[in-house]
Write a sequence for this structure.
């Protein structure tokens, strides 16, 4: 059992007043949005930084593989990229859903729902782009929409020909309304 002294009560009251003043000054909505953005940014950063640093071994800089071979296969790159993308999106949706569930501010909840809807639309567009690119004869690919830009990594044994690049950019434009200048295509052998 803890004995509360008068000075402890005074400190607790002062702290509670400071917290109350802070929320009055900045508003619950602003704090919830800032916390959500911070959490999403941290999650995305960690998803792209940690797998790259964790998979490099100390001997010769080779990438370790959990399968039978000791070197990373391109399929592992595409699978890992898709998994990281999905994990980051799931965490972002979870944070946005918590903003909706808190329900302290209707405007923040509407914005969070709009962001969830945008993320869902991006997921669908990326899947369509990947399917159409594979249908053009490429072995594998991964597409990531980030705002008005689109990054596509394509697996190909040879350099991409100009007509293949044009086909990929056309798919991006038709599937996601991303202008060809905003499409970044990377070749993964």
């Amino acid at each position: 059992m803890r004995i509360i002294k008068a000075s402890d009560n005074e400190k607790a009251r002062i702290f509670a007043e400071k917290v109350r003043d802070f929320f009055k000054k900045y508003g619950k909505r602003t704090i919830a949005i800032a916390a959500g953005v911070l959490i999403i940014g941290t999650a995305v950063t960690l998803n792209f930084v940690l797998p790259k640093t964790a998979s490099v071994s100390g001997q010769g800089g080779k990438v370790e593989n959990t399968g039978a071979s000791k070197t990373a296969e391109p399929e592992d790159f595409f699978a890992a990229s898709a998994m990281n993308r999905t994990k980051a999106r799931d965490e972002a949706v979870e944070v946005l859903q918590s903003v909706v569930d808190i329900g302290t501010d209707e405007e923040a909840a509407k914005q969070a729902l709009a962001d969830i809807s945008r993320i869902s639309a991006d997921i669908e567009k990326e899947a369509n782009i990947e399917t159409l690119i594979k249908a053009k004869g490429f072995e594998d690919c991964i597409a990531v929409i980030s705002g008005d830009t689109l990054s596509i990594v394509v697996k190909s044994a040879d350099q991409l020909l100009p007509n293949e690049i044009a086909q990929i950019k056309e798919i991006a434009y038709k599937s996601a309304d991303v202008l060809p200048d905003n499409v970044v295509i990377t070749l993964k052998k």
